[in-house]
Specification:
Layout lengths: L3 E5 L3 H13 L3 E5 L2 H7 L7 E4 L8 H9 L9 E5 L4 H10 L3 E4 L4 H11 L3
Parallel strand pairs: 1-2, 1-3, 3-4, 4-5
Helix pairs in contact: 1-5, 2-3
Length: 122
């Protein structure tokens, strides 16, 4: 059975690129356009991994990860932040919120898939 990954980014083109890479590697993808949209889509179904941007309208990635980690079904769901932010302070905020990995844009799909495979439990 395919593992499900949620991709949260306000850029449609980025969601498409990430989605194509993930689906090509055999994952199912749920897309969300910002943190609020992502929270609405976290309805208790099994999500094996969340990939989230940091800078988004309505609710940014750090706020979203903090909120998602408050939901019992997603407390232990691994999170990769996929962002243009490379500053140490943002990384610390992301880790504090619960992010397990930090991938800086622009990225290579192989680099992202490598991080995904390390975090998704069999």
């Amino acid at each position: 059975m395919a593992k499900t990954i949620m991709v949260v980014d306000d850029s449609i083109s980025l969601r498409q690129v990430v989605g194509i890479a993930l689906e090509g590697a055999g994952y199912e993808v749920i897309e969300a356009e910002d943190g609020q949209d992502a929270l609405r889509k976290l309805t208790g179904q099994k999500i094996h991994l969340i990939i989230s941007d940091v800078n988004m309208p309505n609710m940014n990635g750090i706020e979203f990860v903090k909120a998602a980690k408050q939901l019992p079904a997603y407390k232990f769901t691994p999170v990769i932040m996929l962002t243009t932010e490379s500053g140490e302070d943002k990384k610390v905020q992301g880790q504090a919120a619960g992010a397990k990995a930090w991938v800086v844009k622009p990225f290579q799909p192989a680099q992202l898939l490598n991080a995904v495979s390390k975090l998704i439990l069999p």
